[in-house]
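Here is the promised in-class demo. Please do not try to memorize the tokens; focus on the logic of going from shape to residues.
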């Protein structure tokens, strides 16, 4: 379709935003807009400048016959602070408190706008890594994992407590839950992860980290690698931490069940972002 430049710029920007981490040949845009390659390059230069100015990402150009342009999403520090403060305000609502010091998170994880913002935060801090797959367990972390995977343009694999006939043969391991010290099982279809794949683990809530430790062991069974770990809420409950290298958005610093008071602070996101 032949568009005026203003319309072409809008469509080009929308296309890039909807296809993050995907290398797109310039020839595709030349054919799509029936415009000269020099015109497309000039448009991309303007978009790149505006993306970086607004802190929403950057455009990476790859030269050569097999080259093209790739949009890498990012989040400005100001936007990240605003989102994390919003998370803290929501988490400190006393009506969210559950027995045992857990927090009710279903309403937050069911909010698509908030989940997409969280996905952008995690994808931004891990965007410099080569990630092939996002992994999570079959709990409330699933929407978070899909939000991150959408921004990174990679598939999601879901670890379950038992195998399913529809998934074919599986790999199963036993692991010790960090908080309850119970032996539990997790399973994943053999076709889910390829050898030497780089896997990003995403979880909604981490106490001691037993579940994440189990996922790490499962990844090793596939002869794959842990590229990173992202946690929405980490808890400081005095238990021995089984996982050390992770990125958390918020930290549950204290809970008073009698007074129904919840204290939440920033996680280590900004330290990891700057390292």
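The designed amino acids, position by position:
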């Amino acid at each position: 379709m032949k568009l005026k430049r203003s319309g072409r710029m809008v469509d080009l920007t929308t296309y890039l935003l909807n296809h993050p981490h995907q290398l797109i040949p310039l020839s595709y845009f030349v054919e799509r807009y029936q415009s000269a390659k020099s015109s497309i390059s000039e448009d991309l230069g303007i978009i790149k400048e505006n993306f970086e100015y607004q802190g929403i990402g950057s455009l990476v150009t790859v030269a050569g016959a097999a080259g093209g342009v790739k949009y890498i999403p990012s989040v400005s520090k100001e936007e990240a602070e605003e989102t994390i403060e919003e998370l803290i305000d929501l988490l400190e609502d006393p009506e969210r408190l559950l027995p045992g010091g857990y927090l009710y998170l279903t309403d937050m994880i069911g909010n698509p706008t908030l989940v997409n913002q969280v996905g952008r935060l995690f994808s931004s801090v891990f965007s410099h890594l080569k990630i092939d797959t996002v992994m999570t367990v079959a709990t409330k972390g699933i929407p978070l994992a899909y939000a991150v995977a959408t921004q990174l343009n990679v598939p999601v694999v879901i670890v379950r407590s038992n195998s399913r006939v529809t998934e074919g043969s599986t790999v199963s391991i036993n692991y010790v839950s960090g908080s309850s010290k119970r032996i539990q099982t997790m399973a994943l279809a053999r076709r889910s992860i390829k050898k030497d794949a780089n896997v990003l683990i995403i979880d909604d809530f981490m106490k001691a980290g037993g579940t994440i430790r189990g996922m790490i062991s499962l990844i090793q069974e596939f002869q794959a690698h842990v590229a990173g770990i992202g946690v929405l809420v980490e808890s400081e409950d005095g238990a021995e931490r089984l996982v050390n290298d992770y990125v958390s958005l918020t930290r549950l610093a204290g809970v008073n069940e009698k007074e129904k008071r919840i204290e939440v602070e920033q996680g280590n996101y900004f330290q990891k972002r700057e390292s």
